[in-house]
Amino acid sequence: MKNILLTVLLVSSTFVSAQQYLTREARLNFDAGSPLEDIEAFTESGSAVYDATTGKIGVQVLMTSFQFKRALMQEHFNENYVESEKFPKASFKGYYGEGNVAGGLTIHGVTKEITVPARLDQEDGNFVLVTSFDITLADYEVKIPSAVANKISKTASIQVQATLKKFSK
Question: What's the sign of the alpha-carbon dihedral 52, 162, 105, 16?
Fold first, then answer.
């Protein structure tokens, strides 16, 4: 819990507006499966912050928070692929505008600029962020051993859903 709070404080410290919205319960899903193997995971402990005045948006997730159907998959994911001890989190820092989010996506210590479709709807005084996009694992230097290359997709589909509530200091 301490790590999650610290993560939110670090992400939100870059935003200094009265129109801040945040959550520590963002849901992120990813699918890197193939016809031979289902490789899916989710977390409901992502952090997200949005500044409605500037359009700045940030999302951050601890890699160890992803849950898999099988413990062995989770272990391999953290130890062999994303190297969670060395690269404990993934993050996005950018802006929302005109139906897209654009900015830097950092995974496995590598940052790439992306622009992907997103919805950021206002509902009941909150903002609801929904986006879905694909990444190429090699772009983020995630290596797939040849022994399992036919079981793991070269791309991962990522979905993010977050209800951000007004932040009051």
Answer: positive
Indicate the helix (H) or strand (E) that contains 6: helix 2-12
137: which 2 tokens? 């694992």
How far is the C-alpha of 87 from the C-alpha of 60, rounded, in Å? 12
What are the structural domains of the chain? 2-166 (2.40.128.110)
Q: What is the pTM of this model?
A: 0.86
What are 24-38's pLDDT values in tens digits? 999 999 999 998 999
Q: Which amino acid is at 164?
A: L
Neighbouring C-alpha atoms within 13 Å toward the C-beta of 44: 0
What does the pLDDT look like over 110-141, one tens digit per residue? 999 999 999 999 999 999 999 999 999 999 99
Rounded distance between C-alpha atoms, residue 135 and residue 156, angstroms? 5
